[in-house]
């Protein structure tokens, strides 16, 4: 009988020791969690969220001035080599003309060309740049060849295909050939631009990084408090 009592007593003592160890371990974990909560509270308080200013995306008119002379054309050709500049120009064009406008490339070209070239200056240009004979005095006049400005032509093409991805480079060439052949008529006509595009896709809102960070910290803080 005494042997059984001793065995029971031994088991009880062992259980008490295990409970004490568990309580000690739990107490240590609580201390660690409290330390984490204090750290997170400090981090949360240190985050200062300032009202974010709306991002102003450059307009096409602010990125490109219509070329009025060969020097302007050379300058734009040099700028058009830069990928970031081209990206900004193409996106600015997309905000004007919108997306998903298949079959409307030629109309978009006419809306776009005045951003790139001054109408009066276009009378001094041709596609090939060959000399032209003036009937009035039978003299030769050297035209400025637009086809030699490959970076401008490619950027112009990208500005159109962002809205109408079916419009080809051959169609761009055909447009410019027609445009310079009627340049005098266009120079004398009233210039009109469409400032808004049909079917423009909605612009996605950009989330504020600081607000997201604060939300994450608050979520972690609530999780830790629930564990206590």
Automatic annotation (TrEMBL):
InterPro entries: DUF4806 (IPR032071). Residues 64-158 form the DUF4806 domain. Residues 1-23 are annotated as: Disordered. This is DUF4806 domain-containing protein.
């Amino acid at each position: 009988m005494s042997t059984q009592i001793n065995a029971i007593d031994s088991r009880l003592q062992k259980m008490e020791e295990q409970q004490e160890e568990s309580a000690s371990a739990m107490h240590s974990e609580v201390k660690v969690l409290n330390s984490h909560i204090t750290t997170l509270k400090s981090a949360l308080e240190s985050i200062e969220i300032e009202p974010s200013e709306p991002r102003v995306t450059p307009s096409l008119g602010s990125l490109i001035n219509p070329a009025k002379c060969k020097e302007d054309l050379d300058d734009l050709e040099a700028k058009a080599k830069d990928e970031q500049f081209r990206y900004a120009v193409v996106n600015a064009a997309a905000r004007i003309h919108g997306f998903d406008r298949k079959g409307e490339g030629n109309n978009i070209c006419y809306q776009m060309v005045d951003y790139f070239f001054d109408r009066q200056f276009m009378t001094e240009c041709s596609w090939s740049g060959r000399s032209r004979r003036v009937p009035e005095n039978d003299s030769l006049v050297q035209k400025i060849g637009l086809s030699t400005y490959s970076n401008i032509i490619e950027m112009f093409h990208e500005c159109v295909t962002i809205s109408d991805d079916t419009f080809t480079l051959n169609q761009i060439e055909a447009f410019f050939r027609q445009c310079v052949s009627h340049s005098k008529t266009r120079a004398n006509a009233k210039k009109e631009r469409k400032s808004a595009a049909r079917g423009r896709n909605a612009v996605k809102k950009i989330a504020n990084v600081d607000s997201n960070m604060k939300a994450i910290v608050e979520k972690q803080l609530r999780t830790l408090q629930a564990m206590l």
